[in-house]
User: What shape does this take?
Amino acid sequence: MNAKRLSGVLSPAITSFRRDLSTDTERYVRHAKWLLANGCSGLAVFGTNSEANSLSVAERMTLLEALVIDGVPAAQLMPGTGCCALPDSVTLTTHAVKLGCAGVLMLPPFYYKGVPDDGLFRSFSEVIERVGDSRLRVYLYHIPPVAQVPISIPLIERLLSRYPGTVAGIKDSSGDWSNTQALLDVFKGSTFDVFAGSESFLLANLRGGGVGCISATANVNPGAIHRLFEQWKTPQADDLQAAISTTRATIQQYPMIGALKAIVAHYGDDPAWVTVRPPLMELGADKSRSLVAELDQLGFTMPDLALCDRQ
Amino acid sequence: MNAKRLSGVLSPAITSFRRDLSTDTERYVRHAKWLLANGCSGLAVFGTNSEANSLSVAERMTLLEALVIDGVPAAQLMPGTGCCALPDSVTLTTHAVKLGCAGVLMLPPFYYKGVPDDGLFRSFSEVIERVGDSRLRVYLYHIPPVAQVPISIPLIERLLSRYPGTVAGIKDSSGDWSNTQALLDVFKGSTFDVFAGSESFLLANLRGGGVGCISATANVNPGAIHRLFEQWKTPQADDLQAAISTTRATIQQYPMIGALKAIVAHYGDDPAWVTVRPPLMELGADKSRSLVAELDQLGFTMPDLALCDRQ
Assistant: This one.
């Protein structure tokens, strides 16, 4: 994979579906390009907010290829490749490495609960060994509220010790700052990069030695989040943090994925974006209106999105 | 699918792997045939204890075909086909219907937690509509301790009302008898079949109007469980229940899947059976020895298993 490490603001790009629930590649690529043109330094495609686990392995590979073929630099891509089934994780990770992606964001297998760290070590280890490519960079995806299978610090230490060039970092979506702080403390001065799982912790993460954030709401507010990343050492950093936290808190009152799609549909003047795959539900007209009203009150904008979507 | 409904003792047949973690079709088919010859009326292949979610879609289809090609009647098969991704569930369910399976056992999509019943209804509904085959019989798979996504009674009522010929029953693996009792009460006199998720509740389930059990430990103790199913109206029913509950409780002290495989490996004199896919771990020599010692003390046997495995 690419020699340069990713840092800054990454978006788990939302995935567009047609009314019949098939993937909509054209809209998908457009949104990805808009994100990179508007503050994202990279795309953590196929994350939780991308509805990745609602996609088949073949659909993920097709979408990833579409991005690269259409000119999105693979060096800015960190696709999610961790599945319940080892062969699927190996297939997706191998595919990402061959395309030249900067790294992969790897969920633990998430069906069985309460599995021992030994079993999780074996899972990540089998994927790394089977992919067998020195270009591979694995970012671990810690999201216990959803996956219900945590990635502990002792597990990370063990993986780092066994695969020092390969295990590259973590996205901490625990929502628990004390866990992020512990990661920063333990891996200080190492090559292990800590991304906060939300821009609410971006400033704290950068001050603690972290490298950025990978955040759902970077799908709609990448510019303001990026501004904080650029200016985090300046006196206005706390104000910038407060502003993006307010925007996030507003969106977070609603079911996140439906809300993100409703926002892109509204500000991009492109109603087709609202579609989600089951088991998720669309946000619906009433909630969308109130969300947009709240965002308008904050002076929220998505520059050139409609322009981009009308291309 | 087959006109005759399944009832009695079904086993979520364990899946055999080679040392390199590839699926071992020959052992798999042998064990399936042993189960049907020793008390199981059907096989709920690709359940939780089959490590189904550790298999790719292609691997599941290959194993299912191998069973049918090798003479296991499709009318005795209820494969698990519920995945996180709608296209995968549709692919597996269509495949099972085309093979003539008696039904499918369908997990809800289990990545997102806290999803509304509307979203789960839409999930099951999309699969049923897309498969679009009147032979389809769906058994819902309620296993909140693992999937963390429950299937509520109001959701079942809604599905039954919309797809009365198709939604055929449930496996209740909640481990909560009050939930099974509620299912029996609500769906009494309907065509909705209730399977207990463990033989510990088999007698209570049959007395309450249920049709049998689908139980992990039916992989190793099908004969005794089947005996209770045959004799549940006789005076010895409570004694038969007590005996199989004791066997289950003994096994359940250990991690279930590793334990089942260790038992088959030991009593079938076939050490290759112990392999599990990560994130699970093998039971290990020490625990296997103590488990076998405890089972021997109970007079536990697996008739003709070694014979069968040496064929």
